[in-house]
Amino acid sequence: MDLIELARIKKSMERNTRLSERILTKNEHQLFFSLESVQRKTEFLAGRFAAKEAFAKACGRGIGKLSFQHIEVLPNGSGAPELTASGYEDVTIFISITHSKAYAAAQVVIEDK
């Protein structure tokens, strides 16, 4: 599980215009740029950050050993998030992302196939 303050992500986005490039894959970036409001972009980026951190924690490796670019969260046909990660094709990954006015949180469960 990971929890992040939306204000922290928004402030980081304002200071570092390349933050989204560091966190998001090309496919995620397309979705990010399709969003119109700063609030929705902040929620999206914070949610993806939390999801990738939660995945790294669930793997027991941490983001330092895994790259944000090797973890991707995209909506499935129903709009629910699906997480895929390079080198983890042999496991089933369950993910949930949520937002409030102040926070984004994600929970990841990894199950052997």
TrEMBL record:
UniProt: Mg(2+) binding residues: D2, E53
Reactions the enzyme catalyzes: apo-[ACP] + CoA = holo-[ACP] + adenosine 3',5'-bisphosphate + H(+)
The 4'-phosphopantetheinyl transferase domain, residue ranges: 2-106
Major place of residence: cytoplasm
GO terms for biological process, alphabetical: fatty acid biosynthetic process
Subcellular localization(s) per the UniProt record: Cytoplasm
Major enzyme class: transferase
Keywords: Cytoplasm, Fatty acid biosynthesis, Fatty acid metabolism, Lipid biosynthesis, Lipid metabolism, Magnesium, Metal-binding, Transferase
Pfam families: ACPS
Obligatory cofactor(s): Mg(2+)
Similarity comment text for this entry: Belongs to the P-Pant transferase superfamily. AcpS family.
NCBIfam families linked to this entry: acpS, pantethn_trn
Stated name of the protein: Holo-[acyl-carrier-protein] synthase
Organism: Lentibacillus populi
